[in-house]
Amino acid sequence: MKRMKIGGMLLICLCASIGSQAQRKEIVQGNTEYEGGRYHNAEAAYKKSVEKAPQQFIGSYNLGNALYRQNKFDEASQQYLNASANNNVNDLQSKAMYNMGNSLLKSEKYAESIEAYKKA
Predict the structure, then answer these.
(1) Residue 4: pLDDT band by 50, 70, 90 thresholds?
(2) pTM higher than 0.85 for the full model?
(3) Phi first, then psi: what are they for 55, rounded to 5°?
(4) Could you write out the DSSP letters of every residue in 21-76?
């Protein structure tokens, strides 16, 4: 019985590890596309990352950046909000909220933009 519990816990850890490796692969691919100016391709890779690990800051944050570069400001704002909610590190939350403020400003949502900047 004890062996089954240990085996089950190892399986859960292995699955979590595989999931995070797959998520990292998508992030790396997205970063390569982003750095090459292929923001649409970066968006697709980051979306896959977010689907695999929706609670991870970096996927949502990078997806927001790729969307912003394509002038998809409302979608970018949502991803920055998601990123901020998925992290309790003040510096990272601040970056996400600042970028959200920029996206809202570009969308001419001035009052919401000001609030995001205040939170940053």
Answers:
(1) very low
(2) no
(3) -90, 5
(4) HHHHHHHHHHHHHHHTT-HHHHHHHHHHHHHH-TT-HHHHHHHHHHHHHTT-HHHH
